[in-house]
């Protein structure tokens, strides 16, 4: 069994925004919140991409502000533990098997969709694989807006109309930013309720910690310097937070440094019987030709051995890897699903040269990847 199998519906990333809405007196339903957070008039959630619970604890000296905040976690992010899945779970309040974003790359209507760029190769798919149809459920942000909450999404300007924003984070007012400075300004202005206009919820996103973790490895000097900058940002936000507002900080996954790789593009045997290879180096969807699933399963198990959990897609669904899986998204899951153990990776040096070059990776079930903090500072 996987090391960390998320308890969907209880203490995962999908439960964070509904709990914050409870805290500001604007619950979406009568269910008790998963996280008992301090009551507030307004709440800001800062998502630090790549902020793993274990990484923060290991490098607490570089982040004294973050390490000193009350932690309602750790919470699991879901499978695969990769940004598009996690952010869609956060934004919709749903597990992956329900919202249907099931990998960094996954099959939708015959396309191998890259969920970060919403493309296939260099082809933009936003008009043909429409994000609002890929993920049609109302988001938490949409539902909160409809209930009268002043909702804002604060993220980089280039993400305003991205497929990922449109599918999993639509709703509220989008405020595009360029750097840490205007991110801070928008977060603070979003929770400023001096006009008495009612409950406010602000979601902010920062990507650079994850970026440097990929490039240099989590815990590297560059990564640690970036963590210090994030910590300084959170410290300044906490100091400037209006009275009665709440600041929460979380991550969308952690990360491991890989030290052994299997290259699919160098192995004809691993490609035999496959139509498409989805996912990322730590979590793969294998879409097989008709009748080839059993042979693909056996070959991948024999090749990867103890470096991976390799299971039929039906078993991954039955064992709850993705949470409850709806009929509408079942065919997006691979005929064979691979989750890497330890610090191993399955790369594609020709098809995915940039992604394959990273020492830092995430996507699987290790605690280092799955567990993230939920840090809270009441104003």
Automatic annotation (TrEMBL):
Output the Pfam families linked to this UniProt entry: Phosphodiest
Looking up InterPro entries in the UniProt record yields:
Alkaline_phosphatase_core_sf (IPR017850), Phosphodiest/P_Trfase (IPR002591)
Gene3D superfamilies attached to this UniProt entry: Alkaline Phosphatase, subunit A
What PANTHER family is this protein classified in? Answer: BIS(5'-ADENOSYL)-TRIPHOSPHATASE (PTHR10151:SF120), ECTONUCLEOTIDE PYROPHOSPHATASE/PHOSPHODIESTERASE (PTHR10151)
This chain belongs to the protein called Nucleotide pyrophosphatase/phosphodiesterase family protein
Please tell me the species this chain comes from: Pseudonocardia nematodicida
């Amino acid at each position: 069994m996987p090391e960390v199998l998320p308890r969907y519906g209880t203490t995962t990333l999908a439960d964070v925004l509904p709990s914050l809405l409870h805290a500001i007196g604007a619950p979406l339903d009568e269910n008790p919140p998963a996280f008992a957070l301090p009551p507030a008039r307004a709440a800001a959630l800062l998502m630090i991409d790549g902020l793993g619970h274990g990484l923060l604890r290991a490098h607490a000296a570089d982040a004294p502000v973050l390490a000193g905040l009350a932690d309602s976690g750790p919470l699991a992010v879901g499978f695969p533990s990769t940004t598009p899945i996690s952010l869609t779970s956060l934004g919709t309040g749903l597990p992956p098997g329900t919202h249907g974003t099931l990998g960094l790359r996954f099959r939708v209507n015959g396309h191998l969709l890259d969920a970060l760029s919403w493309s296939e190769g260099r082809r933009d798919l936003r008009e043909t694989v429409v994000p609002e149809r890929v993920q049609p459920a109302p988001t938490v942000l949409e539902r909160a807006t409809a209930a009268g909450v002043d909702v804002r999404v604060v993220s980089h300007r280039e993400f305003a109309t991205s497929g990922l924003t449109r599918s999993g984070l639509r709703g509220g007012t989008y405020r595009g930013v360029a750097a840490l400075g205007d991110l801070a300004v928008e977060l603070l202005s979003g929770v400023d309720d001096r006009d008495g206009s009612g409950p406010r919820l602000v979601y902010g996103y920062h990507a650079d910690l994850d970026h440097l973790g990929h490039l240099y490895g989590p815990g590297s000097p560059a990564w640690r310097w970036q963590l210090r900058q994030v910590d300084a940002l959170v410290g300044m936000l906490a100091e400037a937070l209006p009275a009665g507002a709440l600041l929460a900080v979380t991550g969308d996954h952690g990360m491991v440094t890989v030290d052994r790789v299997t290259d699919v593009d160098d192995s004809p045997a691993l490609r035999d019987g496959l139509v498409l290879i989805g996912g990322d180096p730590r979590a793969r969807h294998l879409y097989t030709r008709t009748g080839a699933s059993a042979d693909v399963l056996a070959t991948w198990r024999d090749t990867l051995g103890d470096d991976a959990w390799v299971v039929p897609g039906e078993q991954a669904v039955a064992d709850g890897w993705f949470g409850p899986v709806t009929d509408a998204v079942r065919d997006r899951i691979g005929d064979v699903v691979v989750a890497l153990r330890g610090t191993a990776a399955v790369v594609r040096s020709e098809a995915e040269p940039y992604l394959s070059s990273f020492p830092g990776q995430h996507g699987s079930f290790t605690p280092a990847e799955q567990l993230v903090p939920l840090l809270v500072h009441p104003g």
